[in-house]
Amino acid sequence: MRQMKLLLLCLFWGGVTVSAAETDSDTPTPSADETAVRAAIDSYKTAFDKGDAKAVAAHWTSTGEFVTPGGETLTGHDALEKSFTEYFKATPNVKIELDSVGIQFISPGVAIEEGVARVVAPEQEPDVTEYTAVHVKTPAGWKLDSVKETKVIVPQTHYEQLKSLEWMIGTWVDTSDDSTIETVCRWTKNKNFITRSFKVHIEDRVEMEGTQVIGWDPDKQTIRSWLFDSEGGFGVGMWTQKENQWTIRTLQVLANGEKASGINIITKVDDNTFKFRSLGREVDGVLLPGVEEITVVRQP
Questions:
Q1: Please, which pLDDT band fits residue 199 given cuts at 50, 70 and 90?
Q2: Helix, coil or strand: residue 139
Q3: Contacts for 251-257 with beta carbons within 8 Å, 24 or more apart?
């Protein structure tokens, strides 16, 4: 019965634990050539932001090539200047932002630049590409000899549908007289799901553990959750929200094959506190007492 009680507590509630540490490594002093390349990159950005097609084209060598995201190849100053002149005329006040810029020297006179370019025009969605640029050292300074851009495929995300639950990300621990429930809550990549991994501690041992996955169901147009525990049980939940309160209707199959159901209510008090209660709990047709409202506080 103790295991059944703990299982039901885990099925009807979860707390949250996350820990992360970041260390900063010492940044080496850039060489004179790297400083010069970065200055050339900054100069290119300045010319682009001004809409100066002649100055933009001048950043290439006389035989430099630009492969556009659409696959067109432009070669030489004249072709580049003509293309950029038409582009700036059709897209006034456009700006460029460069992210994750990395520079690697493959020889004293050749450097490879890689990064992400974000072109921002008024009242338009940003145009994002990944690029690779080859810089060569010339008597006139560092010039672009080759640039190739590739469209970035933006992954589908359901973050907008799940962001109301973002406050759950963090560390939460619920402790009673004889047990502690510890849970880890984090986003998955692209923020399409939230995972909640829990462990039930009794004295000095882990009695049970499991994982809950929370996501958006585009078919049912609602938030759903799936739960799996180390005893072999699993379940699903359907979430509905009214202001700062979430109601979760749950259905589970316990490890012994029994069916369980219930209604959980989570009420957010603030970013560091929520209240939880459970009612209408049933296992194979047998009604169980509800869980009276408890207050859970975020751990540092």
A1: confident
A2: coil
A3: 252/11, 252/227, 254/4, 254/7, 254/283, 255/7, 255/229, 255/231
Is domain 2-18+169-297 annotated with CATH 1.10.760? Answer: no
The end-to-end CA distance of the chain, in Å, is 33
Q: Record the tokens describing residue 190, joined without a space.
A: 């692209």
Q: How confident is the model at residue 55 (pLDDT cuts 50, 70, 90)?
A: very high
Please report the pLDDT score of residue 207 as a whole number. 81
Q: What is the pLDDT of residue 300?
A: 78
pLDDT band at 290 (very low <50, low <70, confident <90, very high): confident
| CATH class for the domain made up of 32-151 | alpha beta
Q: Where are the domains of the chain?
A: 2-18+169-297, 32-151
Asked if the domains 2-18+169-297 and 32-151 are classified in one and the same CATH topology, the answer is: no
Report how far residue 138's alpha carbon sits from residue 297's, in angstroms, rounded to the nearest whole number. Answer: 62
